[in-house]
Each structure stands twice: as structure tokens, then as C-alpha cells.
Amino acid sequence: MVNKLLMRKELLIGAVVLVSCGLLLSACTPSKEVMKKAEGLVADADELVNEHKYADALDKYGEAREVYEGNVDIYIGIADIYLLKNRESDAVDVLKVGSRTARNSSQAYELLGRLQLEEGDTDEAIDNLSQAVKKDEENYSAKYNLALACMEKGEFEEARKQLDIPSDAGDDYARSQLLRSVLMGDRVEDAKKEISKVDDYESESEELLEDIEGYGELLEKIDSLDEEEKTDKYVDVILASGALSLGYEDVTLDLLEKYKDVEKEYWELNLYLGHAYFLDGDNEKSEEYLNRASTLNPVDYVGAWLQARNYKELSEENSMVDSYRRAVEIAPSEIKVEIRTEFAEELLNNGQYSEAEDQYNSLIKEDEENADKYRIMLAESYIDRGLTDKIGDILGGIRQESISDELLARYYYLKAVVEFDGGDKQKAIQWVEESLDLDPYSASVYLLRGQIEFEEGNVSETKEYLEKAIDLDLQGDVSAEALKLLDRI
Predict the structure, then answer these.
(1) Averaged pLDDT for residues 2-20
(2) Is the pLDDT of residue 22 over 60?
(3) pLDDT tens figures, 252-287
(4) Which of 48, 50, 51, 41 lies closest to 73, judged by CA?
(5) pTM of this structure
(6) CA–CA separation, 312 vs 335, rounded Å?
(7) 190: Cβ contacts below 8 Å, ≥ 6 apart
(8) Which residue among 38, 49, 189, 313 has its CA within the 20 to 30 Å range from the CA of 358?
């Protein structure tokens, strides 16, 4: 059977594409009543998104577009849903239409440009971010992102021009001042002047404030160096580390690439180059410099961890596993848990289940405070492998009274899986309801309820729960299973 939920989504995309063909465009200026009605429908759609009713929200955005297609929030809202669903190409298509169709289209151009920048389409990103600024000169977020796109192209002077943002622009101003400071490079006094303008800045973003404070301290560190220490190379390495910590890998590469062929024995320089190339998506160059750094300092866990991630991108699974093992072995205890958790997930993805179990069991011992979380993660790993008979023993060791509601909802779901697999559908339903009481937005739980109703022969209830699972599914794996079952009805 054809799933009506997905049909509604595809029909909506089709309707939006018609607008791009000019078939529904109107030269008439809408009345205030029409625009107000569209705004009301958009507000209703936004509320549906907040309630995780994504298919209904798409329908409501479609209604708003039929009333007045010039409302840019329609296209932003639809694109946001597709991004939640990991449907980036659909989001891009909708934003392309919105940028051409909507009034006040600066926001659509900006979001489109940001997506293209993330995907590495730098030229198109620059074009669309430039349009965003042209459409609204006070869209300072677009100006900041245009600066990032220019940096990606190595056009640092052009990037600086985009950072002329007024001091009353809030976080956009603070971010621009931080980046202006970074782009001053080894002109440390000028960099300090730029960042001092936001020394006392107040923001709800703790991360932004920490970044400003951290880079200011880095500049003070350079300023306090003895003249003998303050070589161009050493200053560049310190600045490169600061830029890297802020996510400005293009600045790091600009500072350090001039040394890469002559400083093969400088550990930090090679490490920062390897890290920057990794963030820049050049995994082969990253491998070269991370390997060099690892040889120079084999007890550095950061280099080993980066190597593991880089080998993953290169699809070199054996090298990835070896690097994770080394990173776990040499990392300090406060970092070891994070690396081991990531390692266990990658092992599961690779089908190396036995070693993944070993890692989870180590986590249970190393991080006793969060041991039940790892027990639940281990139990969840058995579901896809059909090893539900092993779940019960693990669940028996969990202290229900001491775990969060989020973990308790997952615990109840696992109990439901065990009961369903054991043939007790009524108990399974009870645990499903317990789980949904705590987390009403779990696609996996709705899928399980749909499977139970299917086994009971309840067609309408099966469709109801499976369509709900599809609507809530953000990764696609639950939807695939739900659609298979729907096809059997």
C-alpha cells in the first residue's frame, strides 16, 4: 500500500516546486487580511512542530502557502522539518524556491547559503549569502556566515570586510569581534583591541562567552612571552591552536602551511595541521600529519583519537579500531569514558559486537555513576541482532529509582521488547504505555506498538501507530521498518 503520510510530504514538495516554475505566482500585493491569515497558519504549523507532529505541520505550512506564498517563514519552517529528518537535499530545494518567491527572502537565502557551506558548495554559499545581505543589510548573521564562506575560499581580506557589524547587533557583533581578532593573526596588539571591545559583553550563550575569554587569555599569553620565546613560528603555533579551538581551521592552515615541509619534527605543529585538515575534509593530508605527530609523541591521546576519527572517514576500519584502542589506553580517566563510549558505538556500526560489549562492560566499571546508562545502551544493542533473550539479565541490574526519566523510558521500552518477544502482548503494551508516558515522541516505541497491533490483526490501530512512528522518526531506520509492515496490510 502507499503510505499516505509520506504522500502528503511529497505532494507538498511538488506544490512548492510548482511555485518555482512560476505557475502560481501572482503580481498582486496581498491584503493585510490575507497576510495575517497566512501568519496565523504559520504560527499553527510552528506549534505543531513543537508538538512533534511533523506531517500535520507540513500540511499546515502548505495551507499557509496557498493563502499567501510570499511568507518566508513557510519555507523556513518546511526546511527545518526536512533538516530534522536528515533530508538536506529537500531542504535545499524548498529554500531555493523560498528565496525566489517570498518577500523578505533574506532569511531563506541565508539558511540556503549555510547549508551549502556545510556541504562544501562554497561558491554557491557565497552567492546566496551575498544575496541574503543584499536583501537585508541588517541581517548580520548572514554577514558573519558570508565571512566564514570567504575564509573557506582563502579570501581573508574579503572576510574582514563582512565583519563590519554594529555594536548593538547582540551576539552577531560579539562573534564578529572575536573573528576580527582571530583574523588579525600575529598583530597581537590589534587583536587585543578588537576582542577587548567585548570583554564585558553579556550573552545567554555560555559557549560564546567562554570562547571570547579563552582567546583573550591566549593573546595575553603571547604578550607575556620573553623576547627569546616570541619567535614568529611559536606565535603562529599558539595562534593556530586558538583558531582551531574556535573551529576556524582555515585560519590554522593559513598560519601553519608555510612551515609544513620544514618543521617535520615539531609535534604540535603537525598535530594542529592534521586536525585542521581533518576539519577541512582533506583526510589524506590529515592522515599524513597526524601520523607524523603520533610518531613524535606516541603518548598523546588527542592525536590517537583524531587518527581514529580520520581513519573512519577513510573507511580504514582496522586502523580506526587500533587508534581507538590506543587512545583509550593512554587517555586520562576524565576523558577515557568519552572516547570509550564513542569507540563502542563505532564497533557496533562495524558489527564487532564482542569487543563492543567489552567496551560497555568497561564503561560500567569505570563510570559507576552512569553505569545504568551503559547497561541500557548495551541492552539496546541486542535488539537489532535479535538477541532479546540477553536483555532481561541486563535489565535486572538497573536501579530504576535512580535513573533519569529519559533512561527510564528507554528501560520500559526494553521491557516491552522482551515481553513482546516472549509472546505476552498485553504486558508488552503495558510497558509501551509506561514508556510513552515519559517520552511521548519515541519513534521506536510507536513502531513496537504498531507491530503488536499487527500481530493482533488490528488494521486501523496498526496504521495509526506505524504512521506516528514514521512521523516521529528523524533517522530513517524506524520508517523503513514501519513501511515494510504497512506494505503487508
Answers:
(1) 41
(2) no
(3) 999 999 998 878 899 999 999 999 999 999 999 999
(4) 41
(5) 0.87
(6) 20
(7) 184
(8) 313
